[in-house]
Amino acid sequence: MELEELAKDVEKGFADLDAEISEEAIRIKKLLSRTRRLRSGVKSRLETITENVEYKFAVTTSDFQKLLVYFPDANIRRLEDIEEFHHKISSVFKGEIGLEKRKIEKELKDYNNLVSRYEKQLEELIKNPKLSKTVLSRHSELLRQLNYIQKENKAYVDLTKLKANKKDDNVRLVLIRQKQFTILANELNTAMKNINQFIYAEDYNAPVIDFSGNSYSFFTPDDTGTGIAYKGLVVFDLAVLKLTKLPIVVHDSIVLKQISDTAIEKILELYDNSEKQVIIALDKQNSYTEKANKILK
């Protein structure tokens, strides 16, 4: 309703003017306003492109001989090729940026000329005695109000859409997290079951991990006790070591000494067969099986 009232006020304000002159003034003002907005966008692009032109690539040395002091086996020829490639990319980048800058400068010049032309046309109309400066001023004020209200309406519509999208995104995020945690739990539990099978055959259950919301549970079904808890920790660590890019695992004696001697033998085999780095602290070495002692030595 308010937009309609503003439109009516504009019509009433121009009722005393020569129709042809007033309509021409309004048309030129609209063109001038639009051209100035477009020119502002071009100026912004020119500022950005100018910053890119002035950007300097990091300078590195072309002499890599000193590198051989610390890395005797370094492939110097390969490094020189990479450096040469960087210089070529830099030249291409600056050439393309320079060409784009010249295009934008020409575009800005055209907009400047167009703005000057519209300003001159409008100035000539305002000087015309048939044109009321008061009404033009009123029209400009109403037009600003109209633009402000339109922007507010657009902002409200955009905010409503964003709230709806956020709600949908939150639902999708929960579903995706649940799916990913389910996949992760299945992979870990499968790996832990295989490792536990190698250590204990059918004698003990494998540990199980389960994710729920923002929490997780880790336990060994139907088995309790300190030894079982530490065994579950070792099995979990070995599963993570196998499934991920984790390069190293460290187990202290306080973990290993709680596990039975026969199980330690199997765990040492898994350590020994792993392609990753394994560090352990272990006491009472001589109390373990002959095979375990052989692996330790």
Rg computed from alpha carbons, rounded to a whole number of angstroms: 38 Å
Large-scale geometry: elongated
Helix content: over 70%
Compute the number of strand runs: 4
What does this structure look like?
- The N and C termini lie far apart (90 Å).
- The strands form two sheets. This protein has a two-stranded antiparallel ribbon with strand order 1-2. A two-stranded parallel ribbon has the order 3-4.
- 72% of the residues lie in helices and 6% in strands.
- By secondary structure, the protein is mostly helical.
- It folds into two domains: 2-168; 202-296, no CATH class.
- Helix 1 (2-13) runs antiparallel to helix 5 (133-200) and helix 5 packs across helix 6 (226-243).
- The mean pLDDT is 80.
- It has helices at 2-13, 19-54, 67-70, 76-127, 133-200, 226-243, 253-256, 261-273, 290-296, and strands at residues 208-212, 215-219, 248-251, 277-280.
- It is built from nine helices and four strands, in the order H-H-H-H-H-E-E-H-E-H-H-E-H.
